[in-house]
Amino acid sequence: MERIPLDAGILSSAEEQYFEEEFKKRQIVEIHGGEVEVLDISPPELKHENPTLFISGYGDGSPEGRKANIAELVKEGRRTIIIKSPHGVESQTTDERAEEFSDTLLRQVAAIAPVLEQKGTDKVSIIGESRGGLVALMAAYLHPEKFSDVVLVDPVGLVDSMNSAKLSLRFIMAGMAEGKIFNERIKAGEVSEMNKEQVVWGTKNFMKWILGDPKASVKEIRDMAQTEVAHLLTKIKSEGIGISVIHGVDDKVFPMKDVQANISGQIEIAKAQLSSDGTDEDATQKAFEKVVDGFYSVKGGHGGFNTNAELYTRAASQALSALEAKRRQKQEKS
Q: Where are the beta strands (DSSP E) in 118-201?
């Protein structure tokens, strides 16, 4: 397990002005399930070949709720795409693989492929945070041809299932703990104005979004709690897609030890398969690479990607860069 050092960075005045102007620009994209709002923002200097699809955690997916994260990705030279589709859109997939997921979860994925097709992208990388990590894995599993690399940040679905009441309580307790730490960091002058703005915006709008469609919200929490997707890692990796996981060591919603245990279980399954195939050498490293490319620990609990946006986003960008470098090395050798 590798620990990523995190050191703060801020936008220069010129970068901030550029970002603010571009951030206001939105597109309305018509798809089979209706219309979705899309933010597609490119940096002044593009440093990475593939665009980054950013899928945020539980909420309405408005760019305002992750503005500081988006700003950091742009600063890192990444073209960033966010699709806002509150409670998702109707899924019309006929793919048999989709049958293992609930309709509620499929609604969260339904807009991704059509939007990417309309934007004419070839391969896209994904950063998926919390519930967005679950959506990212589903998208890569159902549409592997569209994705190159996936970075999961404190993802849903890599622990054993639980009831919705237990998950809701964990979210509430984690939110209270993270809020206390966030306020202490504000007093210490460690939080950027943009990060403060996004947390305030998200806090004000979260309950409004929940109550806007309480029936859908209840179903989403239930399905998040009951869905296990660790088995998708090997299947996605077999399609040539890179996967890395970033997880907070103090995450009380999805404890580190549980995430590690589930990933280790998939590695043991892969190792047993390699052994049965007659692998002569130690199969541990090969088995690991069949499941994930990297597992990084970061200081903090669940929600750090929101409340410590610049630092955690930089970690996610670094993880993506490592996957991109690994891909280039393989291409050079072949």
A: 124-129, 147-153
Split into its structural domains, the chain has a count of 1
Q: How far apart are CA 121 and CA 289, in angstroms?
A: 27
CATH number, domain at 84? 3.40.50.1820
Profile the chain (334 residues) by mean pLDDT over runs of 10 residues.
43 83 95 90 94 95 95 96 94 91 94 94 95 97 97 96 95 93 94 95 91 92 95 97 97 96 95 78 84 94 94 96 94 83
Q: Which two tokens stand for residue 110?
A: 């339904």
pLDDT of res. 34: 83
Query: What pLDDT is recorded for position 275?
Result: 81
Rounded Cα–Cα distance for residues 182 and 195 (Å): 10
User: In 3D, which of 45, 64, 63 has the Cα closest to residue 55?
Assistant: 63
Cα dihedral 152, 153, 156, 159, rounded to 10, equals 90
One DSSP character per residue, 187-246 reads: HTT-S-HHHHHHHHHHHHHHHHHHHHSHHHHHHHHHHHHH---TTHHHHHHTTT-EEEEE
Determine the Cα–Cα distance for residues 150 and 170; give it in Å rounded to an integer.
26
**What SS3 class is residue 64?**
helix
Whether 70 and 23 have beta carbons less than 8 Å apart is answered as yes
| Structural domain harbouring 104 | 2-333
How confident is the model at residue 281, as a pLDDT? Answer: 63
C-beta separation of 152 from 133 below 8 A: yes
Q: Which residues contact 208 (CB under 8 A, 6 or more apart)?
A: none
222-253 in b/e form (b: 16+ CB < 10 A) is: bbbbebebbebbbebbeeebbbbbbbbebbbb
